[in-house]
Every structure is written in structure tokens, then in C-alpha cells.
Model the fold of this input.
Amino acid sequence: MDKQHQIAIIGGGIAGLTAAFYLQKEATERSLPLTIRLIEASSHIGGKIETLRTQGMVMETGPDSFLERKTSAKQLAIDLGLEQDLIRNNTGQAYILHDFKLHPIPEGSVMGIPTRLTPFVKTGLFSSAGKMRAAGDLVLSRGVRNGDISVGAFFRRRLGDEVVDRLIEPLLSGIYAGSLDHLSLEATFPQFAEMEKKHRSLILGMRKSRPQSTTGRTKGQFLTLKNGLLSFAEEIEAKLPVSSVLKNSPVRQVEVTEAGYRLHIDGRESFNVDAVILATPFKQASQLLPQITWSLPPNDLPATSVATVLLAYDEQQVPLKVDGTGFVVPRGEDTTITACTWTHRKWPHTVPKGKGLIRCYVGRSGDEAIVEEPDEVIVAQVQKDLKRILSIDGSPEFTLVTRWPLGMPQYTVGHVEWEKHVHEEIAPLPGLFLAGASYGGVGIPDCIDQGKQAVQNTLHFLSL
Ligand code: FAD
Done:
């Protein structure tokens, strides 16, 4: 009889869940001799995915959607039988805050790069000098680089400080709650370096390769699930054998043995496995492997703390005078909010008729103290901003603050090199694989891709 292989997946975030689902699927479809255990420290399956369903609302306290263009999340929904639940975002004008005024993102700008002259010339977001400097991109030679640089350095050279500070930084760095001047070009937006290589000018390159709708108005690029992203976790958990999901089970150590690994878990008997998929953030993963003396480059994956703040109103209390779905705030503006979504407009299915739901972010790299404040202080600051920017003055029916301490890994300059080192360090541990937001991308589809890759690596290791 074939040996029954034991596989442990540590971490019940989307990377670990994906690995568990596709491994179980392979095992069932190909009658493979696999016993899979998904081990999660907390009582919550989903990691940073957290949906709250109350008062007729579907509220996301962590991620709220995923990019359709990176196909693996949509595919996972389909594979889970959730295709009917996929919902695309409502589009509309998006805004940038500057001097407490909301400026529409100039039509034709794609990820902040202008591709149409008239809206760019007409916008009040930049000074004439700033616009002239950005136009310099059309004549500037290709940059000469030796290794990785920051996204900020790259864009500042091509388009100048003003366009970077007022448009590109809030749009691009928001994904990481990071600073554009520290984020790695190679690890976060390598496509722009490629564009410069191919077309020299970003404006010309973007014009040639821009999507059909440059305003993003006709078709939203993001998808979510009708009952919230937590449906991913719920559906996967429901499809796994009950005994294979261990909650409230913090792994303390992954001990290397002659035959594989022995897992030491708080409050449980230790047990042996043949292979391990380690899908926790890197910091926790490294602590589980005391036998490795990590010698990594100095940019040891910093992380930023953020909080999301939900404010639910009677819709009459949120008389938004502008079209659209929300705004982002550049660094240096005198606000606590870093981004704000008018959820009842962007995702109307999540809010009952007659209600309004505003979702704000606070905290970003270098400016995280607010996340430590008590809820009342955070909510008061957010309300002060909303009053000044949107004239929202009424009392919310309820509010919810969710903190994500060190929740946003920062892919700083040299990250790709750092990741290479991490993989070299664990190479002597056969059958142990890493996955998740610390490595090849922070977005939900990136984490799903990594979970799937870990499945392939595990099956290959077990010669299955
Ligand atoms: P996690 O979700 O962090 O899961 C790791 C799990 O490991 C946790 O459940 C943890 O409890 C567990 N664990 C840790 N240590 C142990 C241990 N010793 N033993 C057992 N278990 C352990 N991405 C998007 O695509 N779209 C968005 O809109 C978006 N918005 C975001 C908003 C916020 C506020 C945040 C914080 C992130 C957002 N992201 C978004 C990014 C994305 O949500 C995350 O990168 C992704 O969910 C991380 O998944 P993961 O599986 O790598 O890790």
C-alpha cells in the first residue's frame, strides 16, 4: 500500500487556504495518499481577510476586493463554485485631495501617468511648472541603473517631484501603505522599468499600451464576492475534512527530524509530517525555524501598521456633492485619513437602501502613531477630516475601527535580492516551502499564486 504522506500548512490566511484547497482537490481527484492539516494560530480562518455581516451590511475590515487582471483570485472563486457571487466595482470619478480640495484624477492618467494632454493641462492639481516638468518625460533619455532603485527615484527623474508627490505617490504607494521613496521598483512595479526600456518615455509608452478606457469609468477593474471576501475562507473550510482544520493552534516550532518535520503546537500533542507549507508572515516563519541562523541583507522586510475605519450613516447624513467613489490623500496634507471610499457607491450591494457606509484608512509608513490611539480618538480625527473635506457633519449610526499592526509588508529597495536570500537559507530543508504576502506580492491574487506554487512544489517533492 502507498505511504500516506502527511502535509502541514501553517497559517490560515489566503495563501495557506489556497494551498490546502488545491492540495485537497488534487488528493481527491487523483486519489493521492495525502493527509492535509491546515494549522491556524487564531480562531479566525482567513488571516487578513475579515468580513463583518451585520445590520444588513457586508463590511470588509481588511481587503475589500481584488484585481481581476491577475486571474488567480477569480479562478479560485470559480473553482470554489462562487462564480455567481463575483461582483465588479461600480466606477466613477476618483479624486486626489490637495489643500483640502478634491481634484478629479485627470482623465487619461493611468496609474498617475498622463496620456492625454488637455485634462492634464487643465487640472488644478499641478502648477504650470509641475506640468512642464512632467512633459520633460517626452524628451528625457532612458535612465542608467545599476541594480534596484526606489519607485520614487524612478518617477521623480522622469516626471518631476510635483506630479509624483500629488498624484503618483498616493495612487501607487497606497497599495503598500508605504513610501514611494523606499519601495523597490523591481519588486513592486517592474513594468514601469520595462516600459522605459522599451519606449523610453513613460507617457508615450503608456499611450501605446493603455487600456481602452483610460478613465476607468466604463468597467471596474476590481472584483469582490457578494457576501464578502470571507466567503473564500468559509468555502474552503467547508470543503476540507473537518479534522484537517486545526484552529486556536499556534505552532511554536518546526523541528527538523531525520524523516521530515515534527510540529510543536501550543496545547496539542506534537506530530510528524513529511512536508510543510509555511504560510505565515516571514517574521513568524523565521521564529519557527530556530535551526536556521538567518543571515539576510539588512532590509529585513519592514512592515507598516494601518487601521480601517468604517462609519455607517443614514444616507441623508452623507450628502456627497460629488460624483464618484472616493479619494486618496498625498503625504503632507494635514489629514489623518490616507484614503476614503464611499462604499455605498463603490459596492452598493453591501449596504441597504437608505444607508451610507464610509470606509477610511489611517496610518502609513513613517506616520503610524495614530493606529495606536484609542478608537474614540481615531474616529474623532476621521470625522473631523470628513467634515472638512466632504461636509459630513452628522453622527454615524455606528463605527468600527480595525487595526492591522505591522499588517502591510514593505517591499523596500533590494527586496527581490532579500527574497532570493530567504529561499537560499531554507534550501537545506527539503519539503519545506514558503508562501504569502512577505514574498512574491501582497495582493490577494499574488498570495493565491504563491499558495498554488507551494502545492506544485510539495507534490513534486513527494514525487506525486
Ligand atoms: P495572512 O492573511 O497574514 O495570514 C497568515 C496567517 O498565519 C494568519 O491567520 C495568522 O494568524 C497565521 N499564523 C501566524 N503565525 C502562526 C503560527 N505560529 N501558527 C499558526 N498560524 C500562524 N489585497 C488585495 O488584493 N486587495 C485589497 O483590497 C487589499 N486590502 C488590504 C487592506 C488591509 C487593511 C490589509 C492589511 C491588506 C490588504 N491587502 C489587499 C493585502 C492582502 O489582504 C494580504 O496581503 C493577504 O490577505 C495576506 O495573506 P497571507 O495568507 O499571506 O497572510
Remarks:
- The pocket of flavin-adenine dinucleotide is lined by residues 10-16, 39-42, 47-49, 62-66, 250-251, 279-281, 284, 288, 306, 308, 404, 407-408, 436-437, 442-444, 447 (CB under 6 Å).
- Residues 213-217 have pLDDT under 50 and may be disordered.
